[in-house]
Design brief:
162 residues; Recoverin, domain 1; 4 strands; two-stranded antiparallel ribbon; Calmodulin; mainly alpha
């Protein structure tokens, strides 16, 4: 029997309870059998849904590095580690890979269309308005386009004053 999820168990200086709940929603997209762990099969299915077969080995390497208990599955704590919520981005490559997942056309920006594509692939449903508001909030240099530096700030939770 799996333990009840308590977001308070994961609160840090950088993450509050609401943020933890949102991240858990993303985790649950991958954890299709609701076991509390993402199996290799579930990760493979997610890679296919996101049309990321070309990046599959990189993704699997990242997962192997995060799998602290060597059970070949990723629990929520390890998931947080993968996406940099509990560690710093010492490796620029990890951030580059994440940015490239969003920046499909490799123009150096993430646009509304990029966010829309990713949201649909992972079955996250935001309205057109919500997505556009997110892009407008994040894009400071060139409205409607999130640069790599802005994307990095978002991921690292370094928000500019509004």
């Amino acid at each position: 029997m799996s333990q009840q999820f308590n977001p308070r168990d994961y609160i840090t200086d950088n993450l509050d309870e609401e943020q933890i709940k949102k991240i858990k929603e993303i985790f649950d997209v991958f954890d299709s059998d609701r076991s509390g762990k993402i199996s290799p099969k579930e990760m493979q299915d997610a890679i296919k849904k996101l049309n990321m077969e070309a990046e599959a080995q990189t993704i699997m390497d990242i997962i192997a590095d995060a799998d602290n208990d060597d059970d070949c599955e990723i629990d929520f704590s390890e998931f947080l580690k993968i996406f940099g919520f509990t560690a710093t981005f010492e490796e620029d490559k990890t951030l580059d890979d994440l940015f490239n997942v969003f920046d499909e056309d490799r123009d150096g920006f993430v646009t509304y269309e990029d966010f829309y594509r990713i949201c649909r692939k992972i079955n996250e449903r935001y309205s057109e308005n919500e997505l556009k508001e997110m892009i407008e909030y994040a894009s400071k240099e060139e409205k409607g386009k999130v640069s790599k530096a802005e994307f990095e700030n978002i991921v690292k939770k370094k928000y500019a004053a509004v």
